[in-house]
UniProtKB/TrEMBL annotation:
This is Xylose isomerase-like TIM barrel domain-containing protein. InterPro entries: IolE/XylAMocC-like, Xyl_isomerase-like_sf, Xyl_isomerase-like_TIM-brl. PANTHER family: HYDROXYPYRUVATE ISOMERASE (PTHR12110), INOSOSE DEHYDRATASE (PTHR12110:SF41). SUPFAM superfamilies: Xylose isomerase-like (SSF51658). Residues 24-241 form the Xylose isomerase-like TIM barrel domain.
Length: 248
C-alpha cells in the first residue's frame, strides 16, 4: 500500500488564521489526502467533522501541546475523539536536564495510558535538540524505550540537522516509528525549503517509509525563500507524490 500524503497545517498557519475553511479547500485542491492539525482556529469538534467530511480530507493526526495534555487531559482527548483523530502527537518538549526529561516521561506514561484507553495512539515529534542538548543521551531513544505504547513521528529534516546517521537511526528504531515528517533542507542557510529544492535524499526517505509500511507521509515546511506557504504546499505534494510513484 502506498502511503497517503498529509499537510501539517503549521506550514500554512497564517493562511489558516485568516481563512481556515478556504485554506483547507486549497489543500484538498492541491491533491493532499489529509491534514495534520496544529490547532483548530476556534472551530468546534462538530464543525471540524463537517469540514473534513465535506472536503473529503482525512485526519492523519494532530499536534497537541504537551502542556494542554498535561493540564486538561480528558477534555482534550474528548475533542480529539469527537473529530475522529486516531493519532495524538506531542509536537515539542525541551528540558535542560536529564532529570527533567525523566519527569516528562512519568507524565507521558499517564498521558499514553489515557490515549490508549480511548483507542488512539500517542506520538512524539522530534526536533534537533533532543539529540544535542543532553551530552551522551539520545532523548528520543530514551522516550521510545521508557514510555509505553509511544510511537514516533520522525522529522527527518531535524534528524539530519542534528547530524544523526538517518539510515542507521531509522533501522534501530523501526518498531517505534509510525509517521515521517517530510521536508527538505537548504545547504547554505540550513533552513527548510520546498521538497526537491534542497540537499536531503528524499527518495531514500520514501524508500524507508516503504520498508516500514508507513500509512502517511506528512509534509511540513517552516521557512520560505521563493514561494508563499500555499504555493510551496502545492509544489510539495506534487513532488512527494511523484517520489512515491517512483519508489512504490
Amino acid at each position: 500500500m502506498k502511503p497517503k500524503v498529509a499537510l501539517q497545517l503549521w506550514s500554512i498557519q497564517e493562511d489558516c488564521a485568516n481563512d481556515f475553511v478556504g485554506s483547507l479547500e486549497q489543500v484538498k485542491a492541491f491533491g493532499y489526502d489529509g491534514v495534520e492539525f496544529a490547532g483548530y482556529y476556534d472551530k468546534t469538534a462538530t464543525e471540524i467533522n463537517a469540514l473534513v467530511a465535506e472536503l473529503g480530507l482525512e485526519i492523519a493526526g494532530s499536534h497537541v501541546p504537551y502542556e494542554q495534555l498535561r493540564d486538561n487531559l480528558e477534555v482534550t482527548l474528548d475533542f480529539e475523539q469527537a473529530i475522529g483523530n486516531r493519532r495524538v502527537i506531542v509536537p515539542y518538549a525541551s528540558f535542560s536536564t536529564l532529570a527533567e526529561w525523566k519527569e516528562f516521561i512519568v507524565t507521558m506514561q499517564t498521558i499514553s495510558q489515557a490515549v490508549t484507553a480511548r483507542g488512539m495512539n500517542v506520538y512524539y515529534h522530534n526536533h534537533a535538540h533532543e539529540f544535542l542538548e543532553i551530552a551522551g543521551t539520545d532523548v528520543v531513544d530514551l522516550l521510545a524505550r521508557k514510555i509505553e505504547n509511544l510511537q514516533l513521528e520522525v522529522d527527518l529534516y531535524w534528524l539530519a540537522h542534528a547530524d544523526v546517521d538517518v539510515a542507521a537511526w531509522i533501522k534501530a528504531h523501526k518498531t517505534a516509528i509510525g509517521l515521517f515528517h517530510m521536508k527538505d533542507k537548504q545547504a547554505v542557510l540550513e533552513e527548510s525549503t520546498e521538497l526537491g529544492a534542497g540537499v536531503l535524499p528524499l527518495k531514500e526517505y520514501v524508500a524507508y517509509a516503504k520498508e516500514l509500511t508507513l500509512p502517511w507521509l506528512v509534509v511540513e515546511q517552516e521557512a520560505f525563500q521563493n514561494y508563499s506557504p500555499l504555493e510551496a504546499a502545492q509544489l510539495n505534494v506534487k513532488t512527494l507524490k511523484q517520489l512515491i510513484e517512483e519508489v512504490y
